[in-house]
Amino acid sequence: MAKKFEAHDSTIEDVLFGAERFKIPRYQRPYAWGEDQIAELWADLEDDDASPFLGSFILNDQTKEETGFVEVIDGQQRILSLMILMAALRNNAKAIDEEWAKLIQRKDIAFEGRDGNQTYRVLCGDSTHSFFEENILAYDANILASSPKTKEHEAIKKNYLFLFSRIQEIVKDLPPKKASNALRKLRESVENLTVIHIRITGEDEAYEIFEATNARGVELSVADLLKNLIFRKIKETRLRDDAKEKWLQITGNIEETDTEITKFIRYYWISKYGFVTERKLFKEVKKTVENWEQFLNDLVDASRLYYLLLAGSEEEWRQENLGLKKPERIHKTIVAVRLMNVSQCHVFFMGLLRNLRKINMDPTNTFQLVENFTFNYSAIAKQPGNKVERIYSKYSLRIEKAVSLGEKQRTKEVQRLFASLAEELKNERPNRSLFKDEFMNIRYRNTKPARLLVTYILSRVNDHFEKTAEKVIDFSEVNIEHFLPQKPSKQWNLTVKEVRDYVNLLGNLTLVSKGLNSSAGNGSAKEKVQLLEDTQIMLTQQLLETVRSKGYKWDKKMIEQRQEDLERLAYEKVWDY
């Protein structure tokens, strides 16, 4: 199809501050300019020797007569950033020349009707509409008092503060008249920014140009492109916009996981359709999907599973209708994987949970298998994740294929693939030498990830001693205790400097209840045994018995020996598979 459009060199004054109002379309990505982009814009404005080129603006006039808005196909990031800049300029002007500040509001940020009411030049997308109007566009906005709830909101506030402070630096030591002139000069610099102004007159053409365009600003992600494509395939009706509503469900679920939506989409894809790199993902989706409504519905369901895996509570796992017989045990494994900061196994978990009712098998042992492998391979040996990502994708795809078989064949095939997965993960297990080298370096560090990993290790070892798998790791009920204190009392005949190299080793650590932890203090070995002897934690009971048997002696050699004992137990028993 031949593209019909007009392109002109224009200034921001002609394009943005003319007679038109602008709307951000439903498929557009969120506001995403960061420090680098906003600093570059400011540098352009400070350049006295040029009329900087800001990039291209692609605008769709198709619905202008009906809605009163021109749609922004490309240029959203720059337009919103310029509105932030004008708000910062306006707010600096209030203390210097309030009438001029009101002029900026009426001419650059809004239109004022004959009745005195104002309508803003830019209508943002749903995700930031209210925040942007209340904290940027409104004349009495006070963004300093705002509480950003999303990354978009945080970026808007951060960029406003950057621009406001830069403008403030220009005028802070100037008398009022010179300060006013400096602000006027800055406004002229904004007006004289040059752009390529492209006009189109069709929605389909708009979608295609959005997909193809990658002008100055933040590069389009796979999620941006896919959102655009879905919105193109699923049209808005007069009654509702299903695509937008479902996309908001997806983004809401993924935002709760504190990960990128592109990563989620790729993991879903390689769990169901086939392995592909992120670079080739959009092309593969576009080529493969035929039923876009069903694909979007599947993404909504998958985003809920992804949320459960990365952020769901035990209660949410119990309430979710997945067909799990032991949701608390599955949640225990999921929590363990989270604190190991490993994500590749989520590909397999998504495929397994998605098809669980069709499989009609208890997956608890398989989840435990993956947990144990992940501890060996990733948490301890720190091996690369790209290889196991392919393994997990392969077995998720095999599950997807197996559920299309008859019930009897399906059961046998799933049993075979679970056994095959176990064998393959055993083959990828790090050798004993590598595991031991890394395990012997485990020590307490005062960071949350390090503390959680140590607590998990000690909890799993304690579960082994208790001979039960029903205990749930509850980090709120226990603390890590250094048996040899980090700051030993005089009875130890040791200084802080002398114990620094070994006091934080895993071999010196155990678990105690919070109450006991607060009272254990820095006393002698005998005093600590007496303080802790009422503990119900088997791991700690065994440590106390060892110290008693050695005549209340506890030194570097014994700590290192206990760490070796824990390593042997970890590799041969606790995390064996």
Give the fraction of residues assigned to helices: 55-70%
Task: Look at the helices and sheets and give the structural class.
Answer: alpha/beta
How many separate domains? Answer: 3
Count of individual helical segments: 28
The biggest beta sheet reads: 6 strands, mixed
Flag low-confidence runs: none
N- and C-termini, Cα separation: 59 Å
Q: What is the rounded Rg?
A: 31 Å
Shape: globular
Mean pLDDT level: 89
Number of strands: 10
User: Largest sheet, order of strands side by side?
Assistant: 1-8-3-4-2-7
Strand content: 5-15%
Describe this structure in words.
The protein is α/β, with parallel strands linked by helices. The protein has three domains: 207 residues, no CATH class; 213 residues, no CATH class; 138 residues, no CATH class. It is 59% helix and 8% strand. The chain has a six-stranded mixed beta sheet with strand order 1-8-3-4-2-7, with helices on both faces. Strands 5-6 form a two-stranded antiparallel ribbon. A two-stranded antiparallel sheet has the order 9-10. α4 crosses α7 and α22 crosses α28. The mean pLDDT is 89.
Summary of the model, kept short:
The protein is of the alpha/beta class and 577 residues long. The protein is built from 28 helices and ten strands.
